[in-house]
């Protein structure tokens, strides 16, 4: 049937489950053991309990970070923003057993409040943990950490990620070399006690589709204005159409941007 919503469903390998679950904020896990410091990107992390406050990180058994944290029995999670995109990818490609990654990247650190692991400057939130339990799970070790300190940049996080300033939005991992940042905040409206859920949800869906249509029209107008500015040689700001200059962004058809080298982008 042409209108069958299941007709386009495709099967994927079971390894794709991890990528589907990915998309949360990247954490740079730091540790310190016997005078050595280490940092590595982690995306397999999750809250485990509210009382007591527990978080878990899963590390492959053979990783240098797993060995460091096993000895240190503590770690810190540092949450980077978009500006640290290339640092995150670099740190994930190198092993701390062969190189001091903090020294190699010339990354400035500051002292944590409750643990010996260093905290990384330039991040937007920091969570310090002491290891309560290590659970073998397949080819990984799940380090269960008791949260002992949390620090944030208040213009990045209050009771939730604020997402007001594009420069202090958490960096999210999508797989391989691909990352993203959240675009904005949406507030859901719950139906009242007397409302029929199916009717209310149907009305909300219509509203969201109308809003999406209006947003697409406005975006098309902005892209037209940007194309005109590019033709005139003016400096443009692509953030006004909700698209950052990260690796997933590409100019729409007809909008050719000046080439920026890797060196220029790093500066």
Strand order of the largest sheet: 2-1-5-8-9-4-3
CATH architecture type of the largest domain = Roll
Q: What number of structural domains do the residues give? A: 2
For the largest beta-sheet, the strand count, sense and barrel status come to: 7 strands, antiparallel
Q: Can you count the beta strands?
A: 11
Sequence of secondary-structure elements: HEEEEHEHHEEEEEEHH
CATH homologous superfamily placement of the largest domain: Electron Transport, Fmn-binding Protein, Chain A
CATH topological fold name of the largest domain: Pnp Oxidase, Chain A
Spans where pLDDT lies below 50 across 5 or more residues: 243-267
State the helix count.
Answer: 6
- For the residues shown, what is the average pLDDT? 81
Shape, per Cα inertia axes = globular
Q: Please write the CATH class name of the largest domain.
A: Mainly Beta
The radius of gyration is: 22 Å
> What is the distance, rounded to the nearest whole angstrom, between the alpha carbons of the first and last residues?
54 Å
Structural class: alpha+beta
Q: What percent of residues adopt helix (DSSP H or I)?
A: 25-40%
How much of the residues is beta strand, in percent?
25-35%
Summarize this entry quickly.
26% of the residues lie in helices and 27% in strands. The chain is of the alpha+beta class and 267 residues long.
Characterise the protein shown here.
This protein is an alpha+beta fold. The protein folds into 2 domains: 16-181, Roll (Pnp Oxidase, Chain A), CATH 2.30.110; 197-257. Helix content is 26%, strand content 27%. It contains 6 helices and 11 strands. The protein has helices spanning 16-21, 64-72, 85-93, 101-104, 197-232, 262-266; strands spanning 27-33, 36-42, 45-49, 54-60, 74-79, 109-110, 119-120, 125-137, 140-152, 171-175, 178-181. The strands form 3 sheets. Strands 2-1-5-8-9-4-3 form a 7-stranded antiparallel sheet.
């Amino acid at each position: 049937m042409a209108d069958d919503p299941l007709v386009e469903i495709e099967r994927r390998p079971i390894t794709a489950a991890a990528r589907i679950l990915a998309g949360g904020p990247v954490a740079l896990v730091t540790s310190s053991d016997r005078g050595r410091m280490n940092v590595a990107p982690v995306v397999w992390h999750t809250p485990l309990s509210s009382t007591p406050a527990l978080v878990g990180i899963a590390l492959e058994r053979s990783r240098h970070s797993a060995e460091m944290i096993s000895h240190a029995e503590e770690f810190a999670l540092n949450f980077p923003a978009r500006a640290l995109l290339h640092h995150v990818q670099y740190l994930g490609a190198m092993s701390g057993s062969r190189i001091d990654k903090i020294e190699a990247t010339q990354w400035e650190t500051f002292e944590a409040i409750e643990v010996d692991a260093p905290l990384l400057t330039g991040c937007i939130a920091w969570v310090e943990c002491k290891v309560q339990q290590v659970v073998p799970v397949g080819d990984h070790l799940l380090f269960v950490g008791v949260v002992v300190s949390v620090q944030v940049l208040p213009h990045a996080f209050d009771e939730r990620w604020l997402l007001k300033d594009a420069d202090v939005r958490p960096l999210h991992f999508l797989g391989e070399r691909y990352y993203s940042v959240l675009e904005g905040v949406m507030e859901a409206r719950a139906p009242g006690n007397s409302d029929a859920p199916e009717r209310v949800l149907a009305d909300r869906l219509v509203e969201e589709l109308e809003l999406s249509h209006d947003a697409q029209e406005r975006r098309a107008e902005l892209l037209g204005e940007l194309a005109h500015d590019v033709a005139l040689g003016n400096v443009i700001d692509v953030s006004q159409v909700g698209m950052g200059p990260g690796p997933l962004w590409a100019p729409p058809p007809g909008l050719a941007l000046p080439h920026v080298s890797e060196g220029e982008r790093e500066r």
